[in-house]
Amino acid sequence: MSEKYSTPAAYLWGIMTTIGGVMTTIFDFFTLEQWVAVMGIVCTIGTFFINVYYRKKEYRLKELQYEDTEKNIDGNGR
After folding, report:
1. What is the 3-state secondary structure of the chain?
2. Taking CA 42 as the corner, what is the angle to CA 44 and CA 17, rounded to the nearest 5 degrees?
3. Residues 6 or more apart from 78 whose CB is under 8 A from it?
4. Which of 5, 29, 66, 77 places its Cα 20 to 30 Å from the Cα of 15?
5. What is the mean pLDDT of the chain?
6. For residues 48-71, average pLDDT
7. Terminal-to-terminal C-alpha distance of the chain
8. What's the CA gap between 22 and 13, in Å, rounded?
9. Residue pLDDT, tens place only, 10-47
C-alpha cells in the first residue's frame, strides 16, 4: 500500500528536481540586465503582433461597414 503513494511522489520529486536544474541552467546563462533586455525585446515583438492582429480586425469591420453603407445608398440594401 505504501508503494502506491511513494512511487508517484518519487517520480514527482525527480521531475521537479530536473525542472529546477534546467531552470537554474537557463537563468544562469544571462545576467539580470541581459534578461531585462531579452524580455523587453520579446514584449515589443508581442505588442507588434497584437497590434497587427487588431488592425486587421478593425480594417475588416470598416470594410464591411463601407460595403453595407454602399448597398444602402444604391438602394439594394434593407
Report:
1. CHHHHHHHHHHHHHHHHHHHHHHHHHHHHCCHHHHHHHHHHHHHHHHHHHHHHHHHHHHHHHHHHHHHHHHHHHCCCC
2. 155
3. 72
4. 29
5. 83
6. 91
7. 74
8. 14
9. 888 888 888 888 888 877 778 888 888 989 999 999 99
Contact criterion met (CB below 8 Å) for 72 and 78: yes
Could you tell me the residue ranges of all domains in the chain? 1-30, 31-78
Alpha-carbon distance 8 to 14, whole Å? Answer: 10
Q: Is the pLDDT of residue 62 over 90?
A: yes
> Could you tell me which residues come within 8 angstroms of residue 27 by beta carbon, excluding any fewer than 6 positions away?
35
Distances (CA, A) of 63 to 7, 49, 69, 73, 75: 61, 21, 10, 15, 19
Q: Please state, in angstroms and rounded to a whole number, the distance separating the CA atoms of residues 66 and 52.
A: 21
